[in-house]
């Protein structure tokens, strides 16, 4: 049996050496699910996208501009990627969310959430409309669905170019992951149920 106890509806896992990495398409719900799972497991969560947005803001750039800079300046990626690598080498029992996390922490349980481009853009646009004062420093002019969709497509292209150039891999290749779930036609509750079920089963196997 899995070695945990329940405290205030949280699964407190004992004596485990496990890291769960999340990646996925924009708008797939990975941040929501990763945060919820970290809360339920009472584990720390590291959000690489948040770190990159902060680094971009320090330079007076949006994330889109920072990604574009990264196509020529490898330091914009290498700094956070070295940070992930060090986390994987020195810590256990945490959740990390980032498109290169699976690569720099190869022993992690690798989860990928997918979504169609249009549905992902719809979700992101809706979120931005609900919180217009904070666009997460994503990009400029994200006031329409079409602009959000275009920005997301450019971001994906930039990701692919940078990761291929610096590390020779495609982060969107689903073969890299242990579990892939398309969330296009699923609600948040169903997505979380499936992810949590998979994670707990894997944690159980890790103790046998």
What does this structure look like?
- The structure is a single chain.
- This protein is of the alpha/beta class.
- The chain has one domain (10-206): Rossmann fold (3-Layer(aba) Sandwich).
- Helix content is 51%, strand content 15%.
- The chain is built from eight helices and seven strands.
- It has helices at 30-41, 48-58, 63-70, 75-90, 101-104, 117-130, 145-167, 188-206, and strands spanning 4-7, 10-13, 19-24, 45-47, 94-97, 109-114, 179-182.
- The strands form two sheets. It has a five-stranded parallel sheet with strand order 4-5-3-6-7. It has a two-stranded antiparallel sheet with strand order 1-2.
- β1 (4-7) and β2 (10-13) form a beta hairpin.
- α2 runs antiparallel to α4 and α3 (63-70) runs parallel beside α7.
- The longest helix has 23 residues, at 145-167.
- It is globular, with a radius of gyration of 17 Å.
- Residues 1-15 have low confidence and may be disordered.
Descriptive labels:
five-stranded parallel sheet; Rossmann fold; single chain; 51% helix
Summarize it.
The chain is of the alpha/beta class. Helices cover 51% and strands 15% of the residues.
């Amino acid at each position: 049996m899995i070695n945990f106890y329940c405290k205030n509806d949280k699964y407190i896992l004992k004596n485990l050496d496990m890291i769960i990495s999340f990646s996925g398409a924009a708008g797939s719900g990975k941040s929501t699910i990763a945060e919820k799972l970290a809360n339920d497991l009472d584990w720390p969560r590291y959000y690489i996208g948040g770190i990159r947005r902060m680094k971009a803001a320090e330079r007076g750039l949006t994330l889109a501009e920072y990604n574009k800079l990264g196509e020529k300046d490898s330091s914009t990626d290498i700094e956070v990627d070295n940070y992930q690598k060090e986390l994987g080498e020195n810590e256990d029992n945490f959740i990390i969310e980032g498109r290169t996390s699976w690569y720099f922490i190869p022993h992690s349980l690798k989860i990928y959430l997918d979504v169609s481009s249009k549905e992902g853009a719809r979700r992101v646009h809706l979120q931005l409309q609900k919180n217009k004062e904070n666009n997460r420093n994503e990009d400029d002019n994200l006031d329409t669905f079409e602009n959000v969709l275009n920005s997301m497509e450019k971001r994906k292209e930039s990701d692919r170019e940078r990761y291929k150039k610096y590390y020779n891999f495609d982060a969107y290749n689903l073969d890299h992951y242990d579990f892939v779930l398309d969330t296009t036609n699923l609600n948040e509750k169903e997505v979380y149920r499936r992810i949590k079920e998979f994670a707990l089963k894997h944690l159980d196997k890790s103790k046998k």
